């Protein structure tokens, strides 16, 4: 996506389409008013006649207006004037870009009012604009046999010029947004694939392909034998019921100007979660193909990091396998030894995510990381707790949790800190092993996090439960690309420190 600026009068913009805003009380934003005057009040008359209600994110395309250079003018509703701010701006911009993306326009000028700077500074404005464009133009990499629709023509976003310092920030943000959007596309494309295509080996191949594109990125892929050598007993226990070979991906981005201690990102990569012997109910089981969304988020993060060549050292760890029932599968009551040496009684084979993650988190120790952050579609309980609006954040370090939550606010990709006190860990008591892998239904997302906490002692660690946010079900079924925007903000801010 290209960046350009316009200045002067909105009527003189030469982009293929100009987007202008109208409020619900029928009044026009300044650039809309200028265009309305040039065409002798056509827009105000259109609204008065009741043909466009100016409700938030409603759109209406006009063509070849008198006195307007651009061949297309897209009206977008901004909702009530008094409520206008960052959220309505996002919704209106997203709707406008979606509409323009379906036309033959190659360039679009955004001539909408901007939210107050304290709500959305120049850098975030540039970044959000590019992220919204990426999301608006996203098409599912579908496997339908019908002829593929043509890719959208739109490739240039034109925003209002600003004074030099502000413009520099907007441009910088836009470049971050383009990279962030590319990361979200990489995540969504991988997560949307079915389990028979997106296998553990397929995931490993995507990381290897990414490493080929960037000098800063290298990968190492461990197969079954190497995973055995690492004594990852919990990960091995999950994969043993499947005919599909497991992979453990180690991906690294290195930058000469970065301080040594890396940020480690860990992603749950269950390519299909049947529940194993503790088999899941059939309804919506197909959605368990999204159980590798954490792994996809790591791929997305490295796509973004590589594109921006961020001055950071980042390590990605992706344990990936299937969770299947079979004659070789683990059974409830089986006891295994994790890479950390701690023993685990597997009371429920459907609590498999924490089993593959605990060995990956232990592997993280060798990097002596500054922080470790894992992302996982870990529990149905987080969906009960937070719905699909907030990602659940758990941490053994409050400053790290706050920093992630802050990035969620800045990126409009919200997260909420959940408690993680000792009591929850105590619920995992087992009569036979060091602890069990489940602790009953109550506080299920927290006891899952507490399980991971047993493997991260002495490291600064946060866990993001993305079960409710990383994909949608029902009619909108598909990967959402969350928490890519949050992560981009988090990493960009780290790189700037
Ligand atoms: N992958 C699931 C979690 C999940 C559930 C994600 C629903 C998205 C939507 C995870 O492996 C799982 O099965 N968790 C169990 C844990 C339970 C057995 C303690 C759950 O949430 O039911
Ligand atoms: Mn499960
Ligand atoms: Zn799972």
Which architecture of the largest domain does the CATH hierarchy give at level 2? Answer: 3-Layer(aba) Sandwich
Helix count from the secondary structure assignment? 15
The proportion of strand residues reads 15-25%
Distance separating the two termini: 28 Å
Shape: elongated
| CATH level-1 class of the largest domain | Alpha Beta
Count of discrete structural domains: 2
Estimate percent helicity: 25-40%
Mean pLDDT: 97
Q: How would you classify the helix and strand content by structural class?
A: alpha/beta
Report the CATH topology name of the largest domain: Aminopeptidase
The largest sheet is:
9 strands, mixed
Please, what is the CATH homologous superfamily of the largest domain?
Zn peptidases
Give unreliable regions as ranges.
none
Fold and architecture overview:
It is built from 15 helices and 20 strands. α4 packs parallel to α5, α5 runs antiparallel to α9 and α9 packs across α15. The radius of gyration is 24 Å and the shape is elongated. Strands 7, 8, 9, 10, 11, 14, 15, 16 and 18 form a nine-stranded mixed β-sheet that branches. With 497 residues, it is an alpha/beta fold. It has two domains: 159 residues, 3-Layer(aba) Sandwich (Leucine Aminopeptidase, subunit E, domain 1); 315 residues, 3-Layer(aba) Sandwich (Aminopeptidase), CATH 3.40.630.10. Helices cover 36% and strands 20% of the residues. The longest helix has 29 residues. The chain starts with a strand and ends with a helix. The structure holds ligand BES, manganese (II) ion (MN) and zinc ion. The site of ligand BES has 16 residues, from α11.
């Amino acid at each position: 996506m290209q960046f350009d600026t316009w200045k002067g009068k909105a009527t003189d913009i030469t982009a293929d389409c100009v987007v202008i805003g109208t409020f619900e009380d029928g009044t026009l934003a300044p650039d809309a008013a200028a265009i309305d005057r040039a065409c002798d009040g056509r827009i105000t008359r259109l609204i008065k006649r009741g043909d466009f209600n100016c409700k938030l994110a409603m759109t209406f395309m006009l063509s070849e207006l008198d006195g307007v250079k651009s061949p297309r003018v897209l009206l977008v509703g901004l909702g009530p004037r008094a409520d206008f701010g960052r959220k309505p701006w996002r919704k209106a911009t997203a709707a406008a870009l979606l509409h323009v993306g379906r036309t033959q326009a190659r360039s679009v000028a955004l001539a909408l009012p901007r939210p107050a700077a304290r709500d959305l500074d120049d850098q975030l404005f540039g970044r959000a604009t590019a992220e919204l464009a990426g999301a608006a133009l996203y098409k599912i990499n579908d496997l339908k046999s019908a002829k593929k629709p043509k890719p959208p023509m739109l490739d240039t976003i034109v925003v209002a010029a600003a004074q030099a310092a502000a413009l520099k920030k907007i441009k910088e943000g836009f470049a971050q947004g383009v990279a962030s959007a590319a990361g979200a596309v990489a995540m969504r494309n991988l997560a949307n694939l079915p389990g028979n295509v997106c296998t553990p080996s397929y995931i490993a191949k995507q990381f290897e392909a990414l490493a080929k594109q960037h000098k800063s990125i290298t990968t190492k892929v461990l197969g079954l034998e190497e995973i055995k050598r690492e004594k990852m007993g919990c990960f091995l226990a999950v994969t043993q019921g499947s005919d599909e070979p497991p992979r453990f991906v180690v991906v690294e981005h290195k930058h000469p100007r970065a301080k040594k201690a890396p940020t480690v990102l860990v992603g749950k990569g269950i390519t299909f979660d049947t529940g194993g012997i503790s088999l899941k109910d059939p309804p919506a089981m197909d959605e368990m193909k999204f159980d590798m969304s954490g792994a996809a988020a790591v791929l997305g993060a490295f796509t973004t990091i590589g594109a921006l060549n961020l001055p950071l050292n980042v390590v990605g760890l992706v344990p990936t396998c299937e969770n299947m029932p079979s004659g070789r599968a683990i059974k409830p009551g089986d006891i295994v030894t994790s890479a950390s040496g701690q023993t685990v009684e597997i009371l429920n084979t459907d609590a498999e995510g924490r089993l593959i993650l605990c060995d990956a988190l232990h592997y993280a120790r060798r990097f002596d990381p500054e922080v470790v952050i894992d992302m996982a579609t870990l529990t149905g309980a987080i969906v009960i707790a937070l719905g699909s609006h907030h990602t659940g954040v758990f941490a053994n370090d409050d400053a790290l949790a706050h920093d992630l939550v802050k990035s969620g606010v800045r990126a409009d990709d919200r997260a909420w800190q959940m408690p993680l006190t000792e009591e929850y860990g105590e619920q995992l008591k087992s009569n036979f092993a060091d602890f069990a892998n489940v602790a009953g239904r109550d506080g299920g997302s927290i006891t899952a996090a507490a399980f991971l906490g047993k493997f991260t002692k002495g490291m600064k660690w946060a866990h993001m439960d993305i079960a409710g946010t990383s994909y949608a079900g029902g009619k909108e079924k598909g990967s959402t690309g969350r928490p890519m925007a949050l992560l981009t903000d988090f990493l960009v801010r780290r790189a700037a420190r």
